[in-house]
């Protein structure tokens, strides 16, 4: 098995993987209650998202492909992705990306900007003229504050590092459902882990209950939950962070100092 950046030819395969991997996620089922009647819409939904990421700056997509060293290898599947991960890098105000950083994470271009602009208008038109029959737009309001919740939990962690430093965010990780527990997810995570260690910044993500075990195995820790009210049923992914090994002690010291200050405040309160 090996990983590499995708070409445009790989994007439809990644979309098919996402449609299979995320089709049973609680938030997906809630937002798209008619998905069983229009299963093809899931593919279109994820193809839109992945294609936009493909032409976005500071974003890296890695795909996993099998080779003849894998027990599950076949000549046909060897040329098709069996999993993918999407990483984004947010630079802090005091960070100056090196030439290597820019080459790794990608910079914007006029063509990419034009494509994002064109695709944005196309999505707007399609949503207006041909609304997604699998979706229930009125339910989207339950997710209005999800981004704010994630930002607050993330900022609470970022305060433990020097001001002006950035972070990495794992946007998505998906593997063919029938190939779970074959080490594919771990192989896809390796790229981001190496960048985090090299650049000295944390990695954030939102994990479902099912996926938490994988991330904990690779050093992520839960910092909170996203609270979403779906018609009376509470649901929310766990917000997790993984600090680079060289900075764990530094972060732990900040936690200890915060606890000392809190205890002192209580004592003199």
Would you tell me the overall average pLDDT? Answer: 85
| Class by SSE composition | alpha+beta
Helix content: 40-55%
Spatial gap, N to C terminus? 59 Å
What spatial order of strands do you see in the largest sheet?
Answer: 1-2-3-4-5-9-6
Largest sheet: 7 strands, mixed
Give the total of beta strands. Answer: 9
The dominant shape is: globular
Order of helices and strands: EHHHEEHHHEHEHEEEEH
Count helical runs.
9
Beta-strand content: 15-25%
CA radius of gyration is: 20 Å
Low-pLDDT sequence parts: 256-269
Features:
269 residues; 19% strand; two-stranded antiparallel ribbon; alpha+beta; 7-stranded mixed sheet
Short description:
By secondary structure, the chain is of the alpha+beta class.
Would you give an account of this structure?
By secondary structure, the protein is of the alpha+beta class. 44% of the residues lie in helices and 19% in strands. It is built from 9 helices and 9 strands. A 7-stranded mixed sheet has the order 1-2-3-4-5-9-6, with helices on both faces. The chain has a two-stranded antiparallel ribbon with strand order 7-8. Strand 7 (228-230) and strand 8 (233-235) form a beta hairpin.
């Amino acid at each position: 098995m090996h990983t590499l950046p995708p070409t445009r030819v790989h994007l439809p395969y990644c979309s098919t993987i996402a449609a299979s991997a995320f089709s049973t996620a609680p938030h997906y089922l809630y937002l798209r209650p008619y998905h069983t009647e229009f299963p093809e819409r899931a593919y279109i939904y994820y193809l839109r998202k992945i294609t936009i990421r493909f032409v976005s700056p500071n974003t890296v997509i890695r795909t996993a492909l099998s080779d003849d060293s894998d027990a599950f290898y076949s000549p046909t599947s060897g040329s098709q992705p069996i999993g993918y991960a999407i990483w984004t890098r947010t630079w802090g105000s005091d960070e100056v990306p090196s030439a290597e950083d820019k080459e790794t994470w990608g910079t914007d271009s006029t063509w990419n900007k034009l494509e994002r602009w064109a695709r944005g208008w196309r999505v707007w038109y399609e949503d207006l003229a041909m609304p997604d029959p699998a979706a229930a737009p009125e339910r989207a309001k339950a997710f209005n504050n999800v981004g704010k919740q994630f930002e607050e939990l993330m900022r609470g962690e970022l305060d433990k590092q020097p001001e002006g430093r950035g972070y990495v965010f794992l946007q998505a990780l998906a593997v063919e459902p029938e190939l779970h527990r074959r080490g594919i997810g771990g192989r896809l995570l390796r790229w981001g882990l190496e960048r985090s260690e090299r650049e000295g910044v944390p990695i954030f993500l939102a994990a479902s209950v099912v996926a938490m075990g994988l991330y904990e195995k690779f050093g992520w820790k839960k910092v909170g939950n996203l609270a979403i009210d779906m018609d009376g049923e509470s649901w929310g992914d766990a917000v997790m962070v993984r600090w680079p090994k060289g900075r764990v002690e530094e972060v732990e010291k900040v936690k200890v100092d915060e606890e000392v200050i809190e205890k002192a405040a209580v004592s003199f309160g």
